[in-house]
Specification:
- The chain has a single domain (11-114), classed as lambda repressor-like DNA-binding domains (434 Repressor (Amino-terminal Domain), Orthogonal Bundle), CATH 1.10.260.40.
- It is built from seven helices and no strands.
- It has 138 residues and is mainly alpha-helical.
Length: 138
């Protein structure tokens, strides 16, 4: 079976917010959909948080995720502290630009900036070009 089913893992075991969130969700025996409903997110947003694609907000984690995951401030203080620590570090990495996704995005933006501008067509304009309205006789 999965780690943590029989005995709790030390909070320091987790190096990303997503890893710890997944562990805590499974420990609470919640699906991504159930956790999402409890905090007002979609299950796909919870999936993105667990895969470290999205960055959480510190206030949201404290106000919504901690109670939804059934964390008790007296008995789970170490896990709550680590969860908040990982939120802060993921936000700091994002600001510092050390996130690999940021590096890729910056490279793509530099390539696009160097490319010649393309004629941009609003989606409705493009749609009107291809959808013909029947001619009305008066």
């Amino acid at each position: 079976m999965g780690a943590g089913v029989g005995r709790p893992l030390p909070a320091g075991t987790f190096t990303t917010f997503g890893e710890l969130l997944r562990y805590l969700r499974r420990r609470a025996r919640l699906t991504q959909r159930e956790l999402g409903a409890a905090v007002g997110y979609t299950h796909s947003h919870v999936c993105r948080l667990e895969n470290d694609v999205r960055r959480p907000d510190q206030a949201t984690v404290s106000a919504l995720f901690v109670p939804a995951l059934g964390l008790d401030p007296t008995t789970d203080a170490e896990l709550i502290g680590r969860l908040r620590e990982l939120v802060a570090s993921s936000r700091d990495q994002r600001r510092a630009g050390s996130d690999p996704d940021d590096v890729g995005a910056r490279a793509l933006l530099s390539v696009l900036a160097a490319a010649p501008p393309l004629a941009r067509v609003h989606p409705w304009t493009a749609r009107r070009r291809f959808v013909r309205r029947p001619h009305r006789d008066h």
